[in-house]
Amino acid sequence: MTSGFDAPKDGQDDEESGIPSLYTYLGQFVDHDLTFDPVSSLTKQKDPDALIDFRTPAFDLDNVYGRGPDDQPYLYDGDKLFLLGDPIGGATDTKARDLPRNNANPKRALIGDPRNDENAIVSQLQGLILRFHNRTAVDNPNSEFEELQKIVRYHYQYIVLNDFLPRIVHSSVLADLKTAGKFDQKKLKFYHPKNEPFMPVEFSVAAYRLGHSMVRPGYRLNDATLLPIFPVPSENLPEGLTGFRAMNPAWGIDWGRFIDIDVREHDGPDGPKDVKKRRLQFAYRIDTSAVNPLGNLPASVAANPASLPERNLLRGWRLGLPTGQNVAHAMGVTPLTDDQILLGKFLENPITDPKDPDFLKPISSIANGVFANNCPLWAYILTETRSFKEAVKLPVTENKISQTPRLGPVGGRIVAEVFLGIMFGDGSSYLNKCPNWTPKLGAGYALKDFVKYALGH
């Protein structure tokens, strides 16, 4: 599920999807909002009944707000605003700030969930959300903290359901969960908590690990900074986007490279003149391939094994997850055949030469056929996307992609039902409190609008 070394690049790429790359890190942020197991390790947790989620399974931004200004005043500037850190530059965002940090070495972020500082991109996304809250407070000076928190949460929840979910789950799957165009709790077939929302292992250990395939080998943050996701000293790349340290003051993100928030300054009638300046980078396709840096993680991140795909597969095996075929049967879905379960890159024009390392390989040909009719759930959910592509409307003309893979009737249904079940199970979510609520900008409100507001546009 990984190949040779992938160098960081920001030009047009056959592996790109039609999904702007900030959605990869919104997905990581959402994961941190829903789940937190501080004692988890690959070998220690083998019993799914023993897994404890120390994060509230709700889209409530507790990874941002922590326990609030009364219990964690060191996160806040007074009783309404968040503290911000040192200025960072290098991009067009002149007000960019690092997260607030302590004085340790290395300096750790003072935030609701330390994992939101684990790389330079999710760290700066967290900073944008702090700024979104602070601007909301300025624009609503008479509102109490709880009301400001609700406004921010509603916008975030709306984006998760109406912008992020449709980008990763096929429209046919989402249509089955709606009545008259609106999500309907009665349409949920599989996610039915008896008492309160919970986190199914099929979701956390398999379906929601789709984001690992969306990660690029590296990202251009601004005109001067193009970095791999991890340092690769053997390739003369000593620096990477790893976090848990003060942000390099030259690493400010030019957000137009990650989300379509503006018309790039180099655009003209024939498209961008210099794709390395202000080019919108797209997430990689949701498929059965991960970039090589994830197949050879630094020792500081993980070891034994150092491959993230291998860790995912081992964890699912140790937790006793059923196969993809068994889950499909249980959901009333006709399973993919072994000939349809292909491993590799789901390119727009698939490689046809069997000698090419990127040629798609049937799972039955792997490991002497041990996986024939026995596909691990995570791999099955990823391979399902090859049959569920949708046309995309691209925000820039330089990208020639016409179709983007999305999660299908097994993986998509698991992700969508868990998202909706958690949202419907939260008495304070907008679906319960104000089911007809929409942001002021209207029903088309999306992540790019959230980013623009946080930036002060």
Summary of the model, kept short:
By secondary structure, the chain is an alpha+beta fold. The protein has helices at residues 22-34, 62-65, 68-71, 120-139, 145-168, 171-175, 201-206, 292-295, 308-318, 324-330, 377-384, 411-425, 430-433, 447-455; strands at 16-20, 76-77, 81-82, 178-179, 182-183, 218-222, 225-228, 282-284, 342-343, 361-362, 389-391, 403-405.
Any overview of this molecule?
29% of the residues lie in helices and 8% in strands. With 457 residues, the protein is of the alpha+beta class. The strands form six sheets. A two-stranded antiparallel ribbon has the order 1-8. A two-stranded antiparallel sheet has the order 2-3. The longest helix has 24 residues, at 145-168. It is globular and about 65 Å long. Residues 37-47 and 50-54 have low confidence and may be disordered.
Task: Note the main attributes of this structure.
alpha+beta; Myeloperoxidase, subunit C; two-stranded antiparallel ribbon; 14 helices; 12 strands; 29% helix; 8% strand; globular
Strand content: 5-15%
Choose one word for the global shape: globular
Largest sheet: 2 strands, antiparallel
The low-confidence runs, each spanning 5 or more residues with pLDDT under 50, are 37-47, 50-54
CATH class: Mainly Alpha
Q: Which sequence of SSEs, written as H and E, runs from N to C?
A: EHHHEEHHHEEHEEEHHHEEHEEHHH
Walk across the major sheet and give the strand order: 1-8
CATH homologous superfamily annotation: Haem peroxidase domain superfamily, animal type
Number of domains: 1
CATH architecture: Orthogonal Bundle
Number of helices: 14
Q: N-to-C terminal Cα separation, in Å?
A: 41 Å
CATH topology value: Myeloperoxidase, subunit C
- How much helicity do the residues have? 25-40%
Quaternary organization: single chain
